[in-house]
Design brief:
InterPro entries: DUF4465 (IPR027828), Ice-binding_C (IPR013424). This is Ice-binding protein C-terminal domain-containing protein. By secondary structure, the chain is an alpha+beta fold. It folds into two domains: about 45 residues; about 220 residues, Sandwich (Jelly Rolls). Helices cover about 20% and strands about 35% of the residues. The chain is globular.
């Protein structure tokens, strides 16, 4: 094999390895659930879907209460208001026909990865509990917009990237509800699955999720601190050997090109 063929072979192989870096999707459909149910072990633990591992917290305060952080669910109830329907997505099921999806509640929900990844994005929507609370108000939270619809209310999810030692790589905000528009007809509460591009977070070893709301008081948010997520999509970062091979192949291609020009 002459140097030109070798360079082309090395370059093609390295590029193919880079291009086919594993893309993994946390659909939660790889986790078994009975119909109209959700994962809720009465113990603090974790579960894994795709490349991501999710934390689940439990505090035994009696009456099967209470969990924080993540559960996964396939519940489809979009009409029942209140705390007893805290594990349904207002979209009525998972994203893009998926049965299962994840629901996070307060606490400190995180997703971690066994090796560094680039996060491409995920689908997000409101839980039924939060959506109907914002739409109608309840015993703890106000109706968004107020009685005349003019209150500048909002409900926001912030996704923050974490590197291998927990430092922030960046953050992306997603408005789950926004009533700050000059034209009230533009105000909205998210009731469908919407894709959020997270590629700007760079290479991460984990993701941290936090909620904030205009409806807050001395004890924190009044808006129910829930959101739903599906199809968290990540791409593996190429191994150092692959990156070195890519550089070697490209260097050889460059050398061949210079010789031909000479």
């Amino acid at each position: 094999m002459n140097i030109r063929m070798l360079a082309c072979a090395l370059g093609a192989f390295a590029l193919s390895q880079s291009a086919t870096a594993a893309v993994e999707v946390s659909t939660f459909d790889d986790l078994a659930l009975s119909p109209e149910s959700h994962f809720f072990p009465k113990v603090s633990t974790t579960f894994t879907s795709g490349a991501a591992t999710f934390n689940h917290g439990f505090n035994d305060w009696g009456g099967d209460c209470c969990h924080t952080d993540w559960v996964y669910s396939n519940r489809t109830d979009t009409t029942t208001e209140g705390y007893l329907n805290q594990h349904s997505a207002i979209a009525g099921g998972g994203a893009q026909g998926s049965a299962n999806y994840a629901v996070a509640n307060a606490g400190a929900p995180v997703a971690t990865f066994a090796a560094p990844v680039t996060v491409l994005g995920a689908f997000f929507t409101n839980s039924t509990y939060a959506a109907l609370s914002m739409l109608n108000g309840d015993g703890f939270a106000k109706r968004f917009g107020g009685e005349d619809g003019r209150d500048a209310d909002w409900f926001m999810l912030t996704v923050t990237g974490l590197d291998s030692v927990g430092r922030h790589t960046g953050s992306v905000d997603f408005m789950l509800a926004d009533y700050r528009y000059a034209n009230g007809a533009d105000d909205y509460i998210v009731t469908d699955w919407r894709w959020l591009d997270l590629s700007g977070l760079g290479t991460v070893s984990g993701l941290q999720f936090a909620l904030s709301s205009s409806d807050s008081g001395p004890f924190g948010m009044n808006t129910p601190a829930y959101f739903a997520m599906d199809s968290l999509t990540v791409a593996a970062v190429p191994e150092p050997e692959q990156a070195a091979l890519l550089l070697a192949g490209l260097a050889l291609v460059g050398a061949v090109a210079r010789r031909r020009m000479a």
